[in-house]
Amino acid sequence: MGGGLQRWTNDALIATTHRVRFVDQTRISIPFFVEAGYDSPMDCLPATVSAERPCAYEKTFYGPYIHNTFKLFEEYANR
Whole-prediction pTM value? Predict the structure, then answer.
């Protein structure tokens, strides 16, 4: 979803790369997931767009956006 926030905020918020660090000790992980609806528009929010900073992304919808994003992973490439 970080990539979606990056698109919605016209790069004001930059998505981080997901990393996993393997350690030899017990750790606690608390995931928090948020998803937009499949038909949610993926367009730059008006407050992030100006004459000096036009929207950097083509408008799409969340469903096709996330589906195409998953295709970047080898496990999903043929789906």
Answer: 0.73
